[in-house]
Write a structure and sequence with these properties.
mainly alpha; Helix Hairpins; respiratory chain; electron transport; NADH_UbQ_OxRdtase_chain4L/K
Length: about 100
């Protein structure tokens, strides 16, 4: 395995581990999701550029657009949660509460 592939795969796996283990604040969960999206963006970009696939050319840009939309929705939820609950702790968020 090339060092670049190892670095990108370990970045993605560390982001998943950070999301699954450190679930205290909503902001840290959003940062882990952004790390996963950026690792996927770099992986898809390098894959499409090294293999010269013209059909894969718009895929990184679409992924980056979806990532920006996800970040804006996540930050809007963070602001709404901090206004209603007073903090961004994930343990306070429950679908069973009205």
């Amino acid at each position: 395995m090339l060092p670049m592939h190892f670095t990108l795969n370990s970045t993605f796996i560390l982001s998943i581990l950070g999301l699954s283990m450190h679930r205290t604040h909503l902001m840290s969960a959003l940062l882990c999701i952004e790390g996963m999206m950026l690792a996927l963006f770099i992986i898809i970009t390098t894959f499409s550029s090294t293999n010269n696939l013209q059909t894969m050319a718009p895929a990184p840009i679409m992924l980056l657009a979806f990532s920006a939309c996800e970040a804006s929705v996540g930050l809007a939820l963070l602001v709404a949660t901090s206004r209603t609950h007073g903090n961004d702790h994930l343990k306070n968020l429950s679908l069973l509460q009205c």
